[in-house]
Design a protein that fits this description.
By secondary structure, the protein is of the alpha+beta class. The chain has 2 helices and 7 strands, in the order βββββαββα.
């Protein structure tokens, strides 16, 4: 198992940037780490400048201000980073895209179309 280096781990009071959009937190919003929790699975509590306090954030959702400029430059060049970066051609053509909005939204949670189709097929098999 890979261990995090000192450069990968934020400390309390470090200034960070939201590297991806989250509910109530636009991408690029500045914030400050208020708490670091965990040993092997490190999570962060961050107070963002727009007043939102969010906990249990993974490192991939946050960036240092110096890293943020590089992330924006990579995205402008069309290089993929973020949650869907490691999914290559082996993911299959029938898999829905990571940013796909297909599905059903319930209480702010998106139920992917794949799960809806799977449930429909199962109900047909069971005769329900």
């Amino acid at each position: 198992m890979a261990t995090a280096t000192e450069a990968d781990v934020f400390r309390r009071k470090d200034k960070v940037v939201a590297a991806s959009a989250m509910p109530g937190i636009p991408e690029g919003t500045l914030g400050r780490v208020t708490m670091v929790a965990g040993f092997d699975w490190v999570r962060y509590w961050v107070r963002f400048d727009n007043g939102v306090v969010r906990g249990s954030l993974h490192r991939k959702n946050l960036a240092r201000q110096s890293e943020w400029e590089e992330i924006k430059a990579r995205r402008e060049r069309g290089e993929v980073d973020g949650p869907g970066a490691d999914a290559g051609p082996e993911a299959g053509d029938d898999a829905p895209a990571a940013g796909s909005s297909e599905g059903y939204m319930r209480n702010g949670i998106l139920v992917p179309q794949l799960l809806l189709d799977r449930s429909k097929k199962r109900r047909e098999v069971l005769g329900a």
